[in-house]
Write a structure and sequence with these properties.
Number of helices: 9
Bound molecules: gibberellin A4
Distance between the termini: 39 Å
Number of strands: 14
Radius of gyration: 19 Å
């Protein structure tokens, strides 16, 4: 719960009190207000009682552990990530590097089935069924959260955000990240697993194996996000949602550090629209005093810009309204 401590800066406050943990089984109207408040203040919050079945999560995690435990030659069958598939240390297409290995997957059912064959040498069906079940459950959760946001923002049409990601052709992604512990082969003295960036999409739903490493930037200060409660999902606003809310919600810079006591695995679902979807500020949030901060663009255009820039670049600056 966020408590008021009047004389502290936002960074000092959050260091003491943690980002908000929101119980999705609480009163719907209250929950929608808390979500909006968290998105405005921090761009991050956690949800508990989220309805994603425990066995769906553990099956997916198990597949992740098995994949990363393979020898390099096995993992490389699923790579190089260009941008999808298995990647090791190389992030994106512009030379960014981190102490991380990952699997980046498209989430439409056909692509999951196809890619599972190159990822799993043992049982592709087991892998694809775990990924499909996980994606279905987190997509449902993402839709629910987007509907609560729309309620909290006062939208008459409460599906105005969720329908963007509901389409089977949505460009949503699933990323499994493995950050080996620092003495397990991490070579960078900075211990940066995944360098600072914002997420380009609408919303990110993140799970980790209870090991810390995630940090968010609050007023320019790096603040660790405690991985507890372990059953929670950590949710953050992406660039597209910042645009749609005309800057009311914040797409906040974050990064992942490696640590020296335990390796970390995280699973991130990036909820995105279809490639041809047009993104612009929601009309009911615009007034003569608050004109659009960004120009309209398609998701394909934004994604192309993201891959032409470095990880830490500010993409949204390129889409400001004139
Ligand atoms: C950051 C969020 C997601 O992990 C991701 C990343 C993508 C990639 O790793 O392929 C990007 C990065 C992310 C933003 C800028 C571009 C694209 C690497 C990079 C340098 C999958 C995404 O959609 O954007």
């Amino acid at each position: 719960m966020v408590v008021a401590s009047p004389n502290l800066s936002k960074a000092e406050k959050i260091r003491d009190i943690e980002i908000p943990v929101i119980d999705l089984l609480a009163d719907r109207c209250e929950v929608s207000k808390l979500i909006v408040q968290a998105c405005e203040e921090f761009g991050f919050f956690k949800v508990i009682n989220h309805g994603v079945p425990h066995d769906v999560i553990t099956r997916m995690e198990q597949q992740g552990y098995e994949f990363f435990a393979q020898p390099a030659s096995g993992k490389q069958q699923a790579g190089p990530a260009n941008p999808y598939g298995y990647g090791c240390k190389n992030i994106g297409l512009k030379g960014d590097i981190g102490e991380v290995e990952y699997l980046l997957l498209q989430t439409n059912p056909l692509s999951i089935d196809h890619k599972s064959k190159s990822i799993s040498s043992t049982d592709p069906n087991k892998l694809s069924s775990a990924v499909r079940a996980y994606v279905e459950a987190v997509k449902k959760l993402a839709c629910e959260i987007l509907e609560l946001m729309a309620v909290g923002l006062g939208a008459l049409d409460t599906s105005v955000l969720s329908r963007l990601i509901r389409d089977v052709e949505s460009d949503s992604l699933l990323r499994l990240n493995h950050y080996p512990k620092a003495d397990d082969g991490a070579t960078s003295p900075s211990f940066i697993g995944f360098g600072e960036h914002t997420d380009p999409q609408i919303l990110t739903l993140l799970r980790s194996n209870g090991v810390d490493g995630l940090q968010i930037s609050v007023d320019g200060v790096w603040v660790p996000v405690n991985p507890h409660p372990v059953s929670a999902f950590c949710i953050n606003v992406g660039d597209v949602l910042q645009v749609m809310t005309n800057g009311r919600f914040l797409s906040v810079r974050h990064r992942a550090m490696v640590n020296s006591y335990k390796s970390r695995m995280s699973m991130a679902y990036f909820a995105a629209p279809t490639l041809d979807a047009t993104i612009s500020s929601l009309p009911f949030l615009l007034t003569p005093q608050k004109p659009p901060l960004y120009r309209s663009f398609t998701w394909a255009e934004y994604k192309k810009a993201a891959y032409s820039l470095r990880l830490g670049d500010s993409r949204l600056n390129h889409f400001k309204a004139r």
